Amino acid sequence: MVKKVVVKESGIHGLGLFAKKKISEGEVIGAIKPNRADRDGPHVLWVSETEGHTVEGPLKYINHSAAPNACYCDDLTVIALQDIRAGDEITHNYGEDWRQE
Question: Does the predicted model carry a pTM greater than 0.90?
Answer without folding.
Answer: no
